[in-house]
Amino acid sequence: MIGFIRQQLKTSTQGGSASGGKNHKLKTIYLLYGGSVNAKNVGDFLAMKQIDGALVGGASLHPSEFKKMVKIAESIK
């Protein structure tokens, strides 16, 4: 599904832009996962080659949890 979303975004951004009509082409699309990411599951998400990163919400409010997540991310990416 993630690959499908990436391809659809790439296809829909090839060509003109609604903001001025210039031909802007997207070179790279980065996909972040942002659904209830925590220290227990962030490693699984980041290990997926289709996901480029994680958008951390509530877990970022807990310093010890966030620190664990950063360490896990550093070891994977």
UniProtKB/TrEMBL annotation:
Q: Which UniProt keywords apply?
A: Isomerase
This protein's record includes keyword Isomerase? yes
Q: Which superkingdom is the protein from?
A: Bacteria
**InterPro entries with a match to the protein in the record:** Aldolase_TIM, TIM_sf, Triosephosphate_isomerase
Oxidoreductase is among the record's keywords: no
Provide the GO MF annotations for this entry.
triose-phosphate isomerase activity
| Protein name (database record) | Triosephosphate isomerase
